[in-house]
Design a protein that fits this description.
Number of strands: 6
Helix content: 10-25%
Number of helices: 3
Strand content: 35-45%
Shape: globular
Order of helices and strands: EEEEHEEHH
């Protein structure tokens, strides 16, 4: 099954970083995303989408984003059923952000500093000091190839 969401919009309020009792960072935020379709003669419509981020992603958002910042969010949709204080059954829908990044120019995002990258992957190995003989040994080893 697939549950993947990609969004780009502006933060509607300043996100506030919180922590769980176990010390895990969490942040809730909302982004306004313009709809693709605009009826002739009408104002462009937007959807206001609730999002949540955890751990390093939450810390990253708290540090570099504020109300009006353009943000790109990749994540998944999560729904929850609950009963409100009046006894009515309700459903909430939010995007759990797995990865976020800046988009637009620095003036659009409101940051004066260079945009840091959120990258938790291991860097690729560097071969700048490798000699030609190092690669010949790898290339000559074709004994186990099926063709």
């Amino acid at each position: 099954m697939i549950n993947t969401v990609a969004l780009m919009g502006r933060l509607t309020y300043d996100p506030e970083l919180r922590s769980t009792p176990q010390g895990v960072s969490v942040i809730r935020f909302q982004i306004a995303v313009d709809r693709n379709y605009q009826k002739a003669g009408t104002e462009r419509q937007a959807d206001f989408i609730d999002c949540v981020a955890w751990r390093q992603t939450a810390d990253f958002i708290s540090r570099y984003f504020h109300k009006g910042s353009m943000i790109a969010v990749e994540g998944s949709i999560q729904t929850q059923n609950y009963t409100d204080k009046n006894g009515n059954q309700r459903k909430s829908v939010e995007v759990v952000a797995n990865n976020v990044s800046f988009c637009g120019s620095r003036s659009e995002t409101g940051t004066g500093a260079p945009a840091p990258q959120q990258n938790f992957e291991q860097p690729a190995p560097s071969y700048s000091n490798a000699s030609e003989s190092d690669f010949e040994e790898i290339l000559d080893d074709d004994d186990d190839l099926p063709f």
